[in-house]
From TrEMBL:
It holds the Pfam family Polysacc_synt_3. CDD domains: MATE_tuaB_like (cd13127). It comes from the Bacteria. The lineage of its organism: Bacteria, Pseudomonadati, Bacteroidota, Bacteroidia, Bacteroidales. Belongs to the polysaccharide synthase family. The chain crosses the membrane at residues 14-38, 44-61, 82-106, 126-146, 158-176, 182-202, 299-317, 337-358, 365-383, 389-410, 422-444, 450-472. This is Polysaccharide biosynthesis protein. Its main location: membrane. It comes from Paraprevotella clara YIT 11840.
């Protein structure tokens, strides 16, 4: 792919990724506020208890073949077709298995001191209903891979916005009708269904019969490592909910999930701006070591430019945000949110590092790195749970931050990027974002009206951060502004 074309596709992908995730942030926030006002922490906790099981099942039915499709140098119809039918068949088998295991999941959570005074009788039917989501999702995995591989970011942005609006409306309506956590579960099913339908609409590819599974053999060595890696990632991301559900009350799970939802919304927004372009773009330059390193560092700086002010800003306004949006009943989640904000910047950076290693066809390195981090997290959380929820979240966050050094070690092995170079790419944005937030907190400290305080914090922090970026001559900042103003193409 020519240099100019690659830059244009990357810039366009980043632009549509930003638009899409900005829209998701706005819509998700608005609908999330209404739902949180209607529902209780226990309602969110009931759904949160099942998240890890449904996500692992979803990963198993995909088996890493979707990413393998995107990473193949040459691809034909038979490749998509084999993955499609394999995913559909596997998801049906997984659903039947989980359908009969649902009572055991309920029993796992009931056998704890915290569950003694809780009614978990509806957890089994809720699980059986929620698990339908990954069966429906399997019908669109190959189509998603087609859109992903061809960098159709605009179409994916449209799909996400439509699906989010439709499913959130359904969930909100059911919550208003008194269906509580059933509304949250239905919202998830509706989102997946809309996604799948629209993937088919926008994708040109269609499955056919008969089917040959021979292409899967060629992809298995690569995809099997990604499968194990994705399972570990899902366990790592949901281990706190599982541990809280086992040792604490459902109410506490709901508080954590609410805090994690706000934090994840921000980190996912940043991740989404690069998610649809990182692997295809890095794949196109992986044969040129210096260019590979240059493109990676540019994406790393863009990540830092976006994620640090967003998360530090969320921590700054967390108390006012919770009080105004979802009311005082959720106030206990504020300290958890602030702790999570300190470490959530690692999510898009880890994703970027993993994708770089994957483009070098070293999915084994990604797997063992993820396994190591997961085992460390599980061990640390298990030994820290007697000291309280806040200690568990602090330990979890600290491990995520420290593990970046391991990720950058693997990046160094593949493209020669030294740790100090990565730190130089990240630190200025983190330092300037933190400075902007500290100054904002000091300036606004005398203000007591929470509405005025929230507005001023956002305005002053954004003004200060933008001013600091301009003062210190941030190239990333100038390129983003120039691209948005159509004065020059993004480089």
């Amino acid at each position: 792919m020519p240099e100019k074309t690659l830059k244009e596709k990357t810039a366009k992908g980043l632009m549509w990724g930003t638009i899409s995730n900005g829209a998701q942030l706005v819509l998700g926030t608005l609908f999330g506020i209404f739902l949180a006002r209607i529902l209780s922490p226990s309602d969110y906790g009931m759904v949160g208890l099942l998240t890890v099981f449904s996500q692992i099942a979803s990963v198993l039915q995909d088996s890493g073949f979707r990413t393998a499709l995107a990473n193949r140098r040459e691809i034909v119809h038979e490749d998509y077709n084999a993955v499609f039918w394999f995913n559909v068949g596997t998801s049906c088998v997984m659903y039947l298995l989980l359908f009969f295991l649902a009572p055991l999941i309920t029993e796992f959570y009931q056998h704890s001191d915290a569950a003694a005074n809780q009614d978990l009788s509806e957890l089994t039917p809720l699980a059986r209903f929620s698990f339908l989501g990954f069966v429906i999702a399997s019908l669109g995995t190959a189509h998603y891979a087609y859109l992903f591989r061809t960098l159709q970011v605009k179409q994916k942005a449209i799909i996400t916005v439509i699906s989010l609006t439709t499913s959130s409306t359904i969930g909100l309506t059911m919550a208003l009708k008194g269906y509580a956590y059933w509304g949250l579960a239905t919202q998830g099913i509706a989102f997946t269904t809309c996604n799948t339908i629209l993937f088919w609409y926008f994708s040109k590819w269609r499955p056919t019969l008969p089917v040959s599974f021979h292409p899967l053999k060629e992809m298995f060595g690569f995809s099997s490592k990604l499968l194990a890696n994705d399972i570990c990632n899902n366990i790592n991301g949901n281990i706190l909910s599982v541990m809280l559900g086992r040792f604490y009350a459902v109410h506490d799970v709901g508080l954590y999930n609410q805090a994690n939802k706000w934090t994840s919304m921000v980190s996912t927004m940043v991740l989404g701006t690069i998610k649809d372009v990182a692997q295809p773009v890095l794949r196109n330059v992986e044969t040129e070591r210096e260019r590979h390193k240059r493109v990676f560092r540019k994406m790393l700086r863009f990540n830092a430019f976006m994620v640090f002010p967003a998360l530090f800003g969320l921590a700054l306004i967390s108390r006012e945000l919770i009080l105004i949006t979802v009311t005082e009943k959720w106030l206990d989640c504020v300290p958890l949110m602030q702790i999570l904000c300190a470490g959530a910047f690692t999510v898009p950076i880890q994703y970027l590092c993993a994708n770089l290693v994957i483009t070098k066809e070293r999915s084994d390195l990604v797997l063992w790195n993820t396994v190591g981090m997961g085992l460390t997290q599980i061990s640390a959380i298990f030994f820290s749970y007697p000291y309280g929820i806040h200690t568990m979240v602090c330990v979890y966050t600290a491990i995520n931050i420290a593990w970046l050094t391991i990720w950058f070690y693997f990046v160094h092995r593949e493209i020669g990027l030294r740790l100090w170079e990565a730190v130089l790419d990240l630190f200025p944005y983190a330092a300037l974002a933190a400075l902007a937030m500290v100054v904002t907190a000091f300036v606004t400290s005398p203000i007591e009206n929470i509405y005025l305080l929230l507005g001023l914090k956002i305005f002053i922090a954004a003004l200060l951060y933008g001013g600091l970026m301009w003062l210190f001559g941030s190239v990333t900042f100038k390129e983003c502004i120039s691209y948005l103003l159509n004065k020059k193409r993004a480089r």
